[in-house]
Amino acid sequence: GHLNPGSQQKVLMKTGLILLIAGHLNFITGALVHGTVLRFVVTPRDAVSLQYVIANTASVVAALLTISCGIAALMLSRYLAPATLKWALLVLSACSSLGCLSCLLGLLVAIGLTLGNQGRALLAPCTVANVTLAPVSRECPFDPTRVYSSTLSLWAVSLVLESMEIIFGIRCLLLTLELLRL
């Protein structure tokens, strides 16, 4: 059914806020994964670590898209008139939803790879000898036992956020379509 403009504005505002929050949280999560783990494990020769970086960069980009989508939704909830804003939001929410969907898949692949090889790529900087001698040596920039679980838990958080972004991105898309009466 068609919502009246007042409730449309409320729904848009809520959706925009949720997108903003989810986007920011996801951005932070991506930054944390990168800062704590990925910057140590990136070797261009290693396909797995490359996949991690691509998936992680993509989720940061998707988070930025989600944030801009949220901002556009909030703007539109204030001023329902401008057609350009509606089209912008339509494009943004479509891109954001698609972006988050591809990130979701990328993250699932990353998690699958990590579980599949017991975090081999994550622990690559730590040679086996070092790990037995000292958990944190100069060659190993982090505690190898913790990095595995913390990366996976950060990715799990990211997955939940991506799913939220997809749901609300699509909701935003449908709202905009209704506003444009397409």
TrEMBL record:
Listed transmembrane segments: 12-33, 53-76, 88-113, 152-177
Main localization category: membrane
Alphabetized InterPro entries for the sequence: Beta-casein-like
Membrane topology classification: Multi-pass membrane protein
Cellular location(s): Membrane
Keywords assigned by UniProt, alphabetized: Membrane, Transmembrane, Transmembrane helix
Pfam families named in the record: BCLP
One Gene Ontology term, aspect cellular component: membrane
Record-stated family: Belongs to the TMEM54 family.
Protein name: TMM54 protein
Lineage: Eukaryota, Metazoa, Chordata, Craniata, Vertebrata
